[in-house]
Design a protein that fits this description.
With about 270 residues, the chain is an alpha/beta fold. Helices cover about 35% and strands about 20% of the residues.
């Protein structure tokens, strides 16, 4: 009998194209060696060309999924992705407290505040953004916004390393333990520089900027890889460093799929000769 792996829970929407959302989270969890569990918040109709529609899962079903897996199998780390409404965000936050997940409990909690499209357009109404600020971020061990999400949440437009630090400070005021201000959209910088901070430490994580077109699911994959490392008992700085290495390789190995934007690939972690 095999040893039971660590467990990670993703609370997010489903991507019918398999490149982002729950599907990206689960394949990243697998590639990182943890058992993935889900609480699905919405079912989307999408492919490489974009989202054509979605249907929200009833709030009581979302919270019941969290209770079911936490109560039986246990959760070593958890993350959120797309939470479509303020109602869902409020219910998820209350349920996380109930099952002892979040920065004030033993189980780490990563908030990937999916609030903007890959083109920078807002995906959430203001009441949902406010619920992220007041309900999710105070419970977060780590929050991982891209620059468009930083702008929507704080009003800070990040253009350089100075404003990146300003954004980190603004995000920390909402109450998360750590923030990771991702620099992938700072296209003028020849490197991808992410800034990790807890308000005392400011750690620049530098990496190569790959000239690739296919980046679907990149944010989900990074947050999931970090969550997997937290589930394995790494501290936040080490977990973020591990996640950074994972997403760098996944972007480098991204592949075309369909007529639009293909996904980043965790397949490099598999032994193709097996």
């Amino acid at each position: 009998m095999s040893a039971t792996p660590k467990t990670a829970l993703t609370i997010a929407g489903s991507d019918s194209g398999g490149g982002a959302g729950i599907q990206a989270d689960l394949r990243t969890f697998f590639a990182c060696g943890v058992h993935g569990m889900t609480a699905i918040t919405a079912v989307t109709v999408q492919n490489s060309l974009g989202v054509q529609g979605f249907s929200e899962v009833p709030v009581d079903v979302v919270t019941a999924q969290i209770r079911a897996v936490a109560g039986d199998m246990g959760v070593d780390a958890a993350k959120t992705g797309m939470l479509a409404t303020a109602e869902i965000i409020h219910a998820v936050a209350e349920t996380l407290d109930e099952v002892h997940i979040g920065r004030h409990h033993e189980t780490p909690f990563v908030v990937d505040p999916v609030a903007a499209s890959m083109h920078g357009d807002p995906l959430l109404r203001e009441e949902a953004l406010e619920a992220i600020r007041t309900e999710l971020l105070p419970r977060a061990t780590l929050v991982t916004p891209n620059l468009d999400e930083v702008r929507l949440l704080t009003g800070v437009a990040v253009t350089d390393t100075g404003s990146q630090r300003e954004a980190a400070d603004a995000l920390l005021e909402f109450g998360s333990q750590w923030v990771l201000v991702k620099g992938g959209h700072m296209y003028d910088n020849p490197e991808c520089v992410d800034l990790l901070s807890d308000g005392v430490q400011y750690v620049e994580l530098k990496g190569p900027r790959h000239d690739v077109e296919h980046t679907h699911g990149g944010g989900d994959t990074l947050a999931s890889a970090i969550t997997a490392s937290l589930a394995k008992d790494l501290g936040v700085p080490d977990a973020v460093s591990a996640g950074k290495r994972f997403i760098e390789r996944s972007v480098a190995e991204a592949y075309p799929l369909g007529e639009g934007i293909g996904p980043v690939s965790p397949f490099w972690r598999l032994d193709h000769e097996a």
